[in-house]
Amino acid sequence: MTEIPFWEKYTLTIREAAEYFHIGENRMRRIVDENPFADFIIMNGNRVMIKRKVFEKFIDENSTI
User: Is 51 within 8 Å of 9 (Cβ atoms)?
Assistant: First the structure.
């Protein structure tokens, strides 16, 4: 089974998102905690997943994260 590259995935784990966006894993967790109802968050059971394209838009709209 081949691994799908980050830039082709629809959702990313916290760890993948931190690596893809060059943000620390702890900061990614804080962003999720500070924005619990944000459109870029999807829950898979108890696992937080980040919608890659929606989070990209979130970053574009904010001057600091």
Answer: no
Q: Distance (Å, rounded) from C-alpha 19 to C-alpha 47? A: 17
Query: Domains in the chain, start-ordered, CATH in brackets?
Result: 6-61 (3.90.105.50)
**3-class secondary-structure state, position 42:** strand
Within 10 A of 19 (CB to CB), how many other CB atoms are there?
A: 14
What confidence category does residue 36 fall into, taking pLDDT thresholds of 50, 70 and 90?
very high
Nearest to 50 by CA among 4, 19, 3: 19
Q: pLDDT tens for residues 37-64? A: 999 999 999 999 999 999 999 999 988 8
